[in-house]
Specification:
The protein is of the alpha/beta class. It is built from nine helices and six strands, in the order E-H-H-H-H-H-E-H-E-H-E-H-E-E-H. Strands 3-2-1-4-5-6 form a six-stranded parallel sheet, with helices on both faces. Helix 2 (about 30-45) packs across helix 3 (about 55-65), helix 3 (about 55-65) packs across helix 4 and helix 5 packs parallel to helix 9.
């Protein structure tokens, strides 16, 4: 069972750069916002609190604006929300999903984003039907990498952790999955890297993008099935 993270793994968050460039007129503010968004999502989960990821994204935008003495309007918050709901698919995703499906892998998604929004980027991109289930953290009221977020996948699908492999573009996500006994694959996309620290588990696969990862997964597990 391949369990895909969505934001940055499947969807290209670099498309948000234009909004941040307009608001801040400085480089790197999108990545600063995204890092703070993840930090405070995890802080909320650790402290037993939860708000929708989209609402948190708007709040963090205002926080970053205050830090840099830039006024953030409600129009800015709405523009960011709209951009997030219409994120484009990475160019290498659709064909890789088709290859993995043809090879017999089952596939689901697991995202911090809420479900039921006005727009569905995966449906808009024509790949939503590749996944047999699309999990969000809303049901458990915790953000990844809280153990509950991964456990809901195993429980709902009725499969053991040894049969789950998380595919994500963030090491904090792969660490959370591995702590639950899952395998994990890290897609670096040129902006992320594994955490090389003694006694910290490394991803089972590390690839630059989805095309290389699909080939590696098919090679590894097809070879095993033929042994």
């Amino acid at each position: 069972m391949l369990v895909f993270d969505v934001n940055e793994t499947l969807l290209d968050i670099d498309s948000l750069e234009t909004i941040f460039q307009r608001i801040f007129d400085q480089p790197s503010k999108m990545r600063e916002w995204f890092a703070q968004l993840i930090l405070y999502s995890q802080a909320l989960s650790l402290s037993g609190q939860h708000v929708p990821f989209e609402a948190l994204g708007g709040g963090v935008l205002k926080m970053v604006g205050e830090v840099h003495d830039v006024a953030i309007s409600e129009d800015d918050v709405r523009a960011l929300g709209h951009a997030i709901s219409t994120l484009p698919l990475h160019a290498d995703v659709a064909s890789a999903l088709d290859q993995l499906a043809s090879a017999g892998f089952r596939m689901v998604t697991l995202t911090n984003s809420s479900s039921g929004g006005a727009r569905d980027p995966l449906a808009d991109a024509g790949v939503a039907d590749r996944f047999e289930h699309r999990f969000t953290v809303t049901e458990v009221g915790r953000f990844k990498p809280s153990p509950a977020t991964y456990q809901q996948v195993s429980d709902t699908l009725g499969i053991g952790p040894d049969r789950c492999l998380l595919i994500a573009a963030h090491t904090w996500d792969t660490l959370g999955a591995q702590a639950m006994g899952w395998r994990a694959a890290l897609i670096t996309r040129g902006v992320n890297a594994p955490l090389n620290v003694e006694n910290v588990p490394q991803p089972d696969f590390i690839e630059a993008g989805m095309a290389d990862l699909a080939s590696a997964l098919i090679s590894r597990f097809k070879t095993r099935s033929n042994d």
